[in-house]
Amino acid sequence: MSAVGPVQSIPAMKWRISPSQAGFTGFVIGLLLLCLLGWEMHKHHGQEQHGAQSRSVASADMVAQWVDSTLIASAHSLRGIKELYDLTQAQPGSIDAEALATLLVRRRDSLEFWEEVALVSPSGRIVASTLSSSLTRIELDQHAFFTPLLSHTAPVLEAVSGLYSSETAGGELRLLHALRLENPEGELQGLALARFAPSVFADMLERLTLNEGTSLGLVDTTLRVLARRAEAGIAASMSVGKEVRTPQLLAFQSGSDIRRSWIRESPVDGVHRLYSARKLENAPWVVIAGTDTTFYLNDWWRRFWALMAGWLALVVMGAVAMRHYRHLYAAEQELRQHRNRLAMEMETQLQAQQASELEAAQLKIAAMAFETHLGMFISDAENRIVQVNATFTTITGYAAEEVLGYNPRFLSSGRHGAAFYRTLWQRLKAKDSWQGEVWNRRKNGEIYPQWLTISVMRNDAGAIANYVATLSDITQRKAAEKEIHQLAFYDALTGLPNRRLLIDRLEAALKDTQRDGHYTAVMFIDLDNFKTINDSLGHYLGDALLQDVARRLEQVVRDGDTVARLGGDEFVVMLHELGGDLALAAPHAEIIANKLLMSLMAPFDVQEQVLQVTGSIGIALFTGSEVSVSDILQQADLAMYQAKSAGRNALRFFDTAMQTAVVERARLESDLRQALENQEFRLYYQSQVNAQGVVVGVEALLRWEHPVRGMVSPAEFIPLAEENNLISPIGAWVLETACRQLALWARSSATEGLSIAVNVSPHQFRQACFVDEILDILAHTGANPRRLKLEVTESLFMAEGDTVRARMEALRSEGICFSLDDFGTGYSSLAYLKRLPLDQLKIDQSFVRDVLDDPIDEAIVRTVIALAQSLELEVIAEGVETQAHCQWLYEHGCMAYQGYLFSRPVPVGALVVERQAACMRSIAASAP
């Protein structure tokens, strides 16, 4: 019996799966990839459609704002005509019909899109107009447009018509803008009419740059086209008057939504588009912006077919691999069966052949190890190649018969010098091994990086028998390392150095300037109108523009200089070695900066769009170690904002005064936040007198007594308080202090009749708790509300007019008075004077100062006084500094005064409340 038992058959390998299992697994993987592809394309389709919708919504909003601004300008001019008409009614005979027609012509000519203007009575009679024809009457009852304006209940005060055929314009399509004229009792007095052509909106659309596949349109209440533009070269007025009635547009027009989007074919040109509609705020019209689905889904389709092609390629490769696997599996099964049969036959000869079989097994193991995924070659003691594996051929391109007997030096690329190879052989002799990165050459001449390991094999006598080398191609790893470096230090969009690499180079430049004393310049560049282009034309176009800007900047500077992108539309240029003389370095930097500005001003041709941008450049020069990298960037940034403030498309050098101003402003803001807590605010009072010289009240004026700076000008700290939302607590302190003073004055017969006027900031007035806050102050101070006068400015009424009126009515019902400060310097509309509960108009000192010398100021003051009298409002003039000023104001009907002639602003202890007899003597003498 054999000493070693019978040879057992070789069992099947447990880990290998059958071809059917492998096929099923491949099918599942393919199906999952297809599902993933479908999900990805569905998500991408939604993103593309959302992006197109956002762009069309932005375009519709932009056009809507333009049209609204045009209608607002028309409405303002109509209100001006109403005020002229009100003046003729308030002062009959002051303006005759001919003069009124002349004024209407001037009003018409002030707006370039107005064709004709007219004042029409309720019966349709033309009171005055700019029409040169003999038309004297308009049949108002024959036009449905006028019905709501003529209604006794006055549901509509202002309206814009749809398109109509105008006989006086030769039958062409025109639009009407009408304003209802009412007397103080709300009764109809007539209509102010303005006629204009829809071409004004077509001209707006003509000036826009349209993306390919984009359309813009404006329709009236009857869904007829006022203006439409679908592509460059076709006039926006071509489709005027055409009806575009669609179910989606009808539903949107009758609904309450301001915006809505849908997809359908165009009723005008049949193009399938995504539409976004936007209702106007000042007219019952609709702006429609469309984007051709063919264009915004173009990238989606390319991506879809690319992914499908990749998926199909994977399926084909999987099928080929599966076929190969089936053959391999069958061959392995056949080999296993053959080996089992051979083992059975050789069982009786096992002991005799045990030694030879063991040796054969060892050689087989060595052969299997030799055929690894690493390239291998073995050379003899003289370093001649004696054996290579298949992977060696794959990597180098050399077959075994081409290299056997040759020294491996023929693979050298020539990149390594003699010192490199000398070090390599010294290491081999000392350690019997070496490994490292080597650049070698393939058979086709390509130079590539490889990781090489060499081991020395010695015989029993210790002599070198062979060298065994393994090598691997590390081209992909090197490429990955390069890509990682690129992502870490370079901007992905433009390829320019990013902020991290810029800071590294700045730090290196700082060290260089410390060593050689040369100046270096850092230029902070910001594109002036990039956001408008990016929002209106799309981010793809904006990215392409940024890439073109980067190339132009690189073309201007030298090779050794740096152009970097910090993000968005912000770029930085660093100029090296400008010399050690500041007088020469600064002009050199200025020349380069001007070249950069000129290069940016040249039009950019981006994806068949001609774009125009400009830049603002801030320059900081540095040398030595007196500044840090963050300081340099901050200085250049500050200088850039100075260039922006100078009107853009400009350059500014950093000046230490900028930094000083910023630091000073920050310090002042910090001190201002502590001023109220530290009780540094003071109230000064300036007296207000009547025509008899009696002090009837005072104006409370805020002063800041800084412990170090002394008195800080209100013009310096009030805007800062407004900007940082500190005005509300400061204003509350002023109101409470003034009310406490009123309560003290009420205890004395000499001062109980005095009132205090307190200035209220619009920001403070708009606080939701403002009314309750004042009522609480009056309650706990015990002040008489009838002695408190709140001074407000015209800017308060520019927004939230109804809310402001409601709060004023609530305070006035408690006895508080209101004075309109600085009247005439702002909007100065008769509309809010009529609607708001005002008690007094205050003539601004800028008009009073030159009233004796400037005819314009004289006319303005005279008009304000007459207006106040007609509206039964008190009027007071501030800035009265001379007796002549006071005399002139008295003679023209102003009976209250405030200014240096009577008193400067003083603390309450220095206030004089006695009658100003000397000042009023000449006025009293001239009184009838």
Automatic annotation (TrEMBL):
Residues 376-405 form the PAS domain. The chain crosses the membrane at residues 20-39, 304-325. Its EC number is 3.1.4.52. It is an enzyme of class 3 (hydrolase). Residues 665-919 form the EAL domain. GO terms for biological process: cellular response to nitric oxide. Residues 518-656 form the GGDEF domain. It catalyses: 3',3'-c-di-GMP + H2O = 5'-phosphoguanylyl(3'->5')guanosine + H(+). SUPFAM superfamilies: EAL domain-like, Nucleotide cyclase, PYP-like sensor domain (PAS domain). Residues 434-486 form the PAC domain. PROSITE patterns: EAL (PS50883), GGDEF (PS50887), PAC (PS50113), PAS (PS50112). The keyword Coiled coil does not apply. Keywords: c-di-GMP, Membrane, Transmembrane, Transmembrane helix. It holds the Pfam family PAS_9. Its cofactor is Mg(2+). One of its GO terms (molecular function) is cyclic-guanylate-specific phosphodiesterase activity. PANTHER family: BIOFILM ARCHITECTURE MAINTENANCE PROTEIN MBAA, DIGUANYLATE CYCLASE DGCP. This is cyclic-guanylate-specific phosphodiesterase.
